[in-house]
Hints:
Strand order of the largest sheet: 3-4-6-5
Largest sheet: 4 strands, antiparallel
Strand content: 5-15%
Helix content: 25-40%
Amino acid sequence: MTVRRFTLLLLLAALLSSAAGPALGEGMPAWEYPLEPEILDDYDQYITLANRTHLLSGDYVPADLVNTTCKKASDAGKPQLRQAANDAINAMFAAAQEDGYTLYLKSAYRSYKTQKTMYNTRLERLGRDDGLVSYPGASDHQTGLGADILNLEWTKKDGMNKNFAATGEAQWMAAHCQEFGFILRYMEDKEEQTGIKFEPWHFRYVGPEAAAYIMENHLSLEEFTEEWQAYINAWEAAGGNFRQLIIERSKVNAVTVIDVSDDGEEEVSIFY
């Protein structure tokens, strides 16, 4: 490290120390939830819950949808996912391929209108809600973060059912999905919590930290949401201020690399 770079870092440390004032979160109870508060604060980013009691609006469309670039089932059309989910699914498909499993994207983002048509069609055909097609606004697919993933054999079938869970591809995904920020959205023993029957093909991007916690603790997204919201409520009842904590932490973390000097050393800037 050059003397100039070292001096810059010392100056940065001094600025942070003087600007921080009182200790971070002073007067608040310690934050002890296993996930950082920023992950929970960013609810509308990746951990959004969509179900019958948490309905997305009819005009909700994710802002950063992109055309998927992974391998697709022949009848998948032109599915879209949010950018982070698309990047993650490509990484997961590549890792599966290395382990000898070829995955295919069957379905991804669905609009409210499309979901409504699918739901009404199935309702008219069966005369009842069989728990396999989500109610309009309750679909995980509308978030742009949910994906139906199959192997080649199952892409050729007329429908999907729980027997897909016996395939090597389904078992590989259930074991490794969290490494790429995905969770198995509708688990076999969580039907009461999700209101949806077991779907071993449906995976949902929530980000790597949340995915690791959810899968390691065998939680549905419903249980996870209830848990972290209850923690924040209890933490605030004990004297915490979640919004203030987020503001304070954002100030401390507001350091960015903005330039590279002539000698190739990064220059840093602090801002609030």
